[in-house]
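Q: Given only this backbone (185 positions), what sequence would you predict?
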């Protein structure tokens, strides 16, 4: 392919991305114009190979943001939490993992963050004089967060084990004299 053709394709791609961002801005509000919504849908469907939707945060990424933004703490600490969460995902092997594992890693990391925030809130509440009802509420909330985190980790470990430990195929071969030999491949 000639350089001029490649430049033309790159320019058209950038124009499409710019149009996508423009339409996204127009439709990301309370009552967008139906024609803008239709134009966005048409642009997305007409340019599937560009995967324009990847430029938008996923629901899981929005959930991570919401958990951090709605948690107690100051802005600097919250920014550190964002980086720690990204680091945790990377340490769990997010980048090179198959898509199913990526989803489970994201869930485990978010569950860890939620558990950590509930632990923080729990410790602040428990150092005060509280009612029995409030104490029970926080114990249940903490236990639920711990169960979610544990379940997310166990599921990730189970999927990893199943995907990496494919059992050997075994053949049973009868030899002369009626003896059976098991051969694994």
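A: Predicted residues:
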């Amino acid at each position: 392919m000639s350089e001029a053709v490649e430049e033309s394709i790159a320019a058209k791609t950038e124009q499409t991305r710019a149009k996508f961002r423009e339409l996204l801005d127009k439709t990301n509000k309370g009552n967008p114009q139906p024609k803008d919504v239709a134009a966005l849908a048409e642009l997305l469907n007409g340019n599937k190979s560009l995967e324009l939707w990847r430029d938008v945060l996923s629901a899981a990424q929005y959930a991570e943001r919401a958990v951090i933004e709605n948690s107690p703490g100051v802005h600097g600490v919250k920014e550190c939490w964002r980086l720690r969460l990204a680091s945790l995902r990377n340490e769990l092997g997010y980048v090179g993992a198959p898509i199913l594992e990526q989803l489970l890693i994201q869930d485990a990391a978010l569950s860890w963050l939620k558990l950590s925030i509930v632990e923080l809130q729990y410790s602040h509440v428990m150092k005060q004089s509280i009612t029995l009802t409030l104490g029970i509420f926080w114990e249940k909330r903490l236990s639920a967060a711990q169960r979610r985190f544990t379940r997310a980790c166990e599921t990730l470990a189970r999927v990893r084990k199943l995907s990496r430990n494919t059992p050997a195929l075994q053949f049973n071969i009868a030899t002369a004299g009626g003896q059976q030999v098991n051969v694994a491949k």
